[in-house]
Amino acid sequence: MSERSNETDSKSVGSAPTQVQILSPAVTIMQNYERMMEERTCPICKRRFRAPNYADIAFCSSACEEVAKRAKYKKECVICKKPFLTNQPNTLYCSERCVKKVNKARNRSEAAKIYKMKYRRKPEIMERDRAYRARPDVKARAKAYRQTPEFKERMKIYRKRYRRKPEVREYMRGYLRERYRKKHPRR
After folding, report:
1. Distance between CA atoms of 111 and 104, rounded to whole angstroms?
2. pLDDT tens by residue, 11-52
3. How many helices (H) does the chain have, and how many strands (E)?
4. Mind giving me the DSSP string for 103-138?
5. CA gap 16, 102 in Å, rounded
6. Which residues are 21's β-sheet partners?
7. What are phi and psi of 182, to 5 degrees?
8. In degrees rounded to 5, what are phi and psi of residue 37?
């Protein structure tokens, strides 16, 4: 009884006998192995093969994997619009420089969101900012900056972009129609 076997033994507990199946370790390992395997399709040769469900095996053989590695995809960089070749079908950027540009912009926008969420909504910080902006020297500096040609140019560009938005155009049309009707009422 100390050695496990693949047979069914009968043990009696109390008055009713029960059937207990004792499996050898090799059999349980094989059952677990079969449960872990899953059916997959090779993207190169379309052949079906079995692979463990915990492994990221995509190809049926090393030959198919080599064919996939040699495949080239012609893409256009999202940032600089230059055409480039890549081995990966989902690559978006042509170089590390373009990736850094994207990450820098993403980090900057995320940092701004975090700042607004963490600090801007706190009443004591809002009061502090309001008090700072109310100081005469800060007001004078802001007024002087608004008079500079750089600021005026920046605002000119911003207004152009803002006016191009469809919702702003629609609002402006309605506003101008209303203003015209007030100045020139129908008789």
Report:
1. 10
2. 444 555 556 555 566 666 666 667 777 888 888 888 988 888
3. 7, 6
4. HHHHHHHHHHHHHIIIIITSHHHHHHHHHHHHSHHH
5. 72
6. 8
7. -70, -40
8. -85, 145
